[in-house]
């Protein structure tokens, strides 16, 4: 494990694009934190055309030692090129020992019992939890949804279940990687998590971990999983732990957010096709890494394989259109090999691992979509 020193305790990276109604409460909650003077806040202006930039400039002027505005157009020559490039720009300029991603329309330090109040120890809780556990690669907090105005919780059981699982992992003191990877795969978000900068940024820049540019789908899951496998390779006994004290991140549900657009039915068929393709890419990577590190008999390998098959089959079954039938066929052929690497005739030698599983899933997918 690296002992690289940094000038700040934490770097907080906030991509910003036309979030004028939300950026002020977001930054207010961050500036309320009791350790904020020892943090670096990077606000990446992604070519905002509303009043977002003016709010960023006001906060930066009042807090010049904490907040820095990075204009992504100066870096890439384009505007509104997506959250992945914005986060990468932030990582390029990170000086903190640790890194946290915050979406500019969300709130950190939420208090579900009193939404008008902010937990001033949110960042310190994350930092202390990670620093007191040098065997742990990342720390994860709790997450909940709030309404667009941020004044009412939106009931959801998903994060309650995830938090219960994570607490159970902590209670058992179980460092087994498969439980942590299962949790991360199901959780998806890269926010509300504190990462070690020296796992992300290396002395050799070609080895730096970054988000995939222009990846509109699964960019969070892809980054988090790559970070997790890198932590395994660097011999961290634990991939993740929960914060020592509950720390809440409030995800704002709003109709114009990127995630909302992914979940409604106004997308074009081609965007649905792209989402399915990215899901295939993500799970193909996940399965390959699981096979390499744990083998095809491992619990996490089989969980990922079944989740991959079920989700992809459901996508294809739900979104396929006759006009795009050939595109789906090509996509499946790309990710699901037709030949066993051991030369067996029936793909049943039980030594094929990754390709064998994909062949099995291919038959299931085709059976469900015909």
Task: Write up what this structure looks like.
The protein contains 14 helices and 11 strands. Helix 1 links the parallel strand 1 and strand 2 (39-45). Helices cover 47% and strands 15% of the residues. The chain has a 7-stranded mixed sheet with strand order 3-2-1-4-9-6-10, sandwiched between helices. Strands 5-11-7-8 form a 4-stranded mixed sheet. It has 370 residues and is of the alpha/beta class. Residues 259-266 have low confidence and may be disordered. It has helices at 20-31, 52-62, 72-76, 83-92, 122-131, 158-172, 177-187, 197-200, 219-233, 258-263, 269-294, 299-319, 325-335, 353-369, and strands at 8-16, 39-45, 67-71, 96-101, 107-110, 136-140, 142-146, 153-154, 193-196, 238-242, 248-252. It starts with 7 loop residues before the first strand and ends with a helix. The longest helix is centred in the last third of the chain and has 26 residues, at 269-294. The chain has 2 domains: 8-261, Spore Coat Polysaccharide Biosynthesis Protein SpsA, Chain A (Alpha-Beta Complex), CATH 3.90.550.10; 265-369, no CATH class.
* Total of DSSP H or I helical runs spanning 4+ residues: 14
Q: What kind of sheet is the major sheet? A: 7 strands, mixed
Structural class by helix and strand composition: alpha/beta
Task: Please list the strands of the largest sheet in the order they lie side by side.
Answer: 3-2-1-4-9-6-10
Q: Rg to the nearest angstrom?
A: 21 Å
CATH architecture of the largest domain: Alpha-Beta Complex
CATH topology heading of the largest domain = Spore Coat Polysaccharide Biosynthesis Protein SpsA, Chain A
For the residues shown, what is the average pLDDT? 81
Distance between the termini: 50 Å
Strand content: 15-25%
Name the CATH class of the largest domain: Alpha Beta
Helix content: 40-55%
Net shape? globular
What is the total tally of β strands? 11
When the domains are counted, the total is 2
CATH superfamily of the largest domain: Spore Coat Polysaccharide Biosynthesis Protein SpsA, Chain A
Model regions low in confidence, pLDDT < 50 over at least 5 residues: 259-266
Oligomer: single chain
Instruction: Give me the strand/helix succession.
Output: EHEHEHHEEHEEEHHEHHEEHHHHH
């Amino acid at each position: 494990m690296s002992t690289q020193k940094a000038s700040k305790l934490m770097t907080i990276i906030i991509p910003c694009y036309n979030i004028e109604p939300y950026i002020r409460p977001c930054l207010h909650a961050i500036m309320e934190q009791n350790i904020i003077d020892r943090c670096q806040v990077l606000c990446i202006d992604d070519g905002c055309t509303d009043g977002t930039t003016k709010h960023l400039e006001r906060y930066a002027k009042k807090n010049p030692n904490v907040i820095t505005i990075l204009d992504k157009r100066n870096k890439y020559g384009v505007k509104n090129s997506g959250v992945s490039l914005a986060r990468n720009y932030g990582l390029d300029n990170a000086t903190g020992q640790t890194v946290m991603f915050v979406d500019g329309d969300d709130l950190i330090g939420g208090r579900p019992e009193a939404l008008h109040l902010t937990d001033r120890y949110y960042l310190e809780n994350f930092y202390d939890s990670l620093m007191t556990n040098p065997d742990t690669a990342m720390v994860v907090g709790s997450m909940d949804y709030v309404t667009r105005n941020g004044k009412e919780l939106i009931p959801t059981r998903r994060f309650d279940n995830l938090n219960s699982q994570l607490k159970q992992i902590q209670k058992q003191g179980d460092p087994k990687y498969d439980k942590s990877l299962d949790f991360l795969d199901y959780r998806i978000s890269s926010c509300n998590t504190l990462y070690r900068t020296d796992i992300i940024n290396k002395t050799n820049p070609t080895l730096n971990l970054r988000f995939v540019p222009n990846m509109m789908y699964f960019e969070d899951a892809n980054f988090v999983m790559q970070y997790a496998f890198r932590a395994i390779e660097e011999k961290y006994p634990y991939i993740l732990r929960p914060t020592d004290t509950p720390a809440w991140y409030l995800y704002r549900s709003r109709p114009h957010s990127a995630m909302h657009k992914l979940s409604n039915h106004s997308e074009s068929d081609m965007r649905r096709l792209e989402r399915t393709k990215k899901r295939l890419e993500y799970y193909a990577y996940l399965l390959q890494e699981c096979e390499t590190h744990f083998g095809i008999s491992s619990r996490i390998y089989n969980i990922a394989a079944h989740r991959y098959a079920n989700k992809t089959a459901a996508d294809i079954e739900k979104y396929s259109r006759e006009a795009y039938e050939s595109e789906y066929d090509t996509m499946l052929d790309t990710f699901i090999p037709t030949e066993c690497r051991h030369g067996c005739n029936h793909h049943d030698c039980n030594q094929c691992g990754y390709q064998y599983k994909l062949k099995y899933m291919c038959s299931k997918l085709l059976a469900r979509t015909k």
